[in-house]
């Protein structure tokens, strides 16, 4: 479990995360949603210790985040940030092998190779593993970066807006793979996501942030509610049932701003 208590982060006089307290359960997909500037990415960065908090405490499986040695933390938590552009010439396989660095220190053994192969298979990259990253489409490149995180073989996987700039097909494939990682391998996935319908169809829990604070935190079915979402985003939401899933349409000034998308 990841336990967060009274966590705050300030930049100058601006408090971007304010006294956040929540427990994130294992073996689930927990999605972080909310308007731009709500503190979602900052919160994820603090959980992974990429940035320090000003106040509060984070515990990973009962141990304070500050007490984890960097090498051991890298075997427990992996994170993929929004911007992952590399200016060096790497093949897909070489990139994915970086995920094994906390274990191999650059000297790959048979177990490392096995986990690299597993990550390549999970992300359906077999036919392009010897191609250079620079030659790939945006969707293929994103899948390679997620494969690198999978190869790191951590219990907790943190993803900061991994669907950005992806077409619908690639986004659906990635969400299905993340669902399988949880259901088949028992991983715990924390994801910052803007598409409410993907959060609805693939998440177990949703953390809804507004102005740096937790506005709502509950099972997905309870968060995907027209009243809750309208309050969170300050616009009109309607929620529909489609094949047993809740799908949202949302409106601004009486005009529909979203088509019902095929996300399941």
Please, could you describe this protein's structure?
This protein is 33% helix and 30% strand. It is of the alpha/beta class and 264 residues long. Strand 1 (2-11) and strand 2 form a beta hairpin. The protein contains 10 helices and 13 strands. It starts with a strand and ends in an 8-residue tail after the last strand. Residues 259-264 have low confidence and may be disordered. Helix 5 (110-122) runs antiparallel to helix 6. The strands form 3 sheets. It has a 6-stranded mixed β-sheet with strand order 6-7-8-3-9-10, sandwiched between helices. A 4-stranded antiparallel β-sheet has the order 2-1-4-5, with helices on one face. A 3-stranded antiparallel β-sheet has the order 11-12-13. It has helices at residues 40-47, 70-73, 92-97, 101-104, 110-122, 138-151, 168-185, 196-202, 220-223, 226-233; strands at 2-11, 14-24, 29-33, 55-60, 63-64, 77-80, 156-160, 188-192, 205-210, 213-219, 236-242, 245-252, 255-256.
Task: Give a summary of the structure in a few sentences.
The chain has 264 residues and is α/β, with parallel strands linked by helices. It has helices spanning 40-47, 70-73, 92-97, 101-104, 110-122, 138-151, 168-185, 196-202, 220-223, 226-233; strands spanning 2-11, 14-24, 29-33, 55-60, 63-64, 77-80, 156-160, 188-192, 205-210, 213-219, 236-242, 245-252, 255-256.
């Amino acid at each position: 479990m990841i336990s967060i208590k009274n966590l705050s982060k300030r930049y100058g006089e601006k408090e971007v995360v304010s006294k956040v307290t929540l427990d994130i359960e294992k073996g689930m997909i927990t999605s972080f949603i909310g308007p731009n500037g709500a503190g979602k990415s900052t919160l994820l960065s603090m959980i992974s210790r990429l940035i320090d908090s000003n106040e509060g405490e984070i515990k990973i499986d009962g141990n304070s985040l500050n007490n984890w040695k960097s090498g051991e933390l890298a075997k427990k938590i992996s994170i993929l940030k929004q911007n992952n552009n590399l200016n060096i010439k790497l093949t897909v396989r070489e990139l994915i092998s970086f995920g094994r660095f906390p274990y191999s220190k650059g000297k790959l053994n048979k177990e490392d190779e096995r986990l690299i192969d597993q990550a390549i298979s999970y992300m359906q990259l077999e036919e392009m593993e010897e191609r250079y990253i620079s030659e790939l489409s945006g969707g293929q490149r994103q899948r390679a970066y997620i494969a690198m995180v999978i190869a790191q073989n951590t219990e907790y996987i943190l993803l900061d807006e991994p669907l950005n700039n992806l077409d619908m097909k690639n986004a659906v494939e990635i969400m299905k793979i993340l669902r399988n990682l949880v259901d088949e391998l028992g991983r715990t996935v924390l994801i910052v996501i803007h598409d409410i319908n993907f959060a609805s169809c693939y998440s177990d829990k949703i953390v809804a942030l507004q102005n740096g604070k937790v506005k709502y935190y509950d099972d997905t079915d309870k968060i995907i509610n027209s009243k809750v979402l309208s309050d969170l985003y300050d616009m009109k939401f309607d929620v529909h049932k489609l094949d047993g899933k809740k799908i949202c349409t949302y409106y601004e000034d009486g005009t529909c701003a979203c088509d019902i998308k095929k996300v399941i």
